[in-house]
Amino acid sequence: MIWFGNRNGGSLIGNEVNSINPADRGFTVGEGVFETVVVREGQPFALERHLARLVNSARILRLAEPDLTVIRAAVQSAVAANVKVIGDLGRLRITYTAGQLDQIPTLMVTCTAQAPWPDNTSAITVPWIRNERSSISGAKSTSYAENVVALAAARDAGAAEALFANSVGNLCEGTTSNVFLVLDGEVLTPTLSSGCLAGVTRELVIEWFNVKEVDLPFDALFDAQEIFLTSSTRGIHPVVRIDQRHLDIGTITAQLRAQFAALAAQNVNP
Question: Which of residues 57, 79, 111 is at a domain's end?
Fold first, then answer.
C-alpha cells in the first residue's frame, strides 16, 4: 500500500499510483526532494533527522514548506499497512515534489522490503565530478541522473558504488553514500563544503565516534588503510576494493560497525 496525496492530506491506495498529474514538476523537470529511511521491526530509524533534512532540501529548491504533521501521519499509515510484507527490514521513501505550476506540492510515501546488504562492498572512482557550488548542493533532490549514470559505470566495472571528486579535486561522496577513510589510525570524512550530502548515518557516525571532517584529496582513497561507506540502508559498510586496489576489513571499521549497530538498536530516533 502507498500513501498518496499532498501536503494538506491524502490516503492509502493500492500499490500502483495512477493519479500523478503529467504536469507535476517533479515529473517534468525533477523539481522534488526525497528521503530514504530504513525500517527495522516496523520502526523507522532516525525519522526526525530525515524530516529535518527533507525540510532543508525543500527550502534549497524553494518548494513550499512541507507539513511535517501530515508527513508523520503518512509515514505511520504506510508502515502499518506494509509491516507484514516488509518483515524485519524495510525501506521507507518520502517523495515531495513541486506539483503543478503554482499548485499544491505532491507527497508520496512508500514502504517496501529491503534486502540486507552483503557483508562488504566495492567501488570505483569516476571521472565526473560533484559541483560543490551548485545551486542545489546539499539537497537530496529527485534529479538523480548523474548518480544513475555513475552507478551504471560501477556495475559495468563489477563494482557496487561509484565515488566522486568535487571541482577542486577533493574527495566528495558516492552516488548513494558518504565515504570515510582511516588514515594512520584516524577516521576522516569529507566536509559538507566538499559538496557531499549531509547523510543521516554520516551525521550519527560523526557524533557518536568523534570523527573529523576534513578536506581530503581524491587520491587519499589509495593511501587509506581502511575505507567504509555509510547510508541509511547500509549503516557502516566496509569497502574491500577500490578500482584495482584490494583492502581488508580493518579493525577500526569492524569495531565502529558493531558499535553503530548496537547504538542504533538502543534508540530508534537518536
Answer: 111
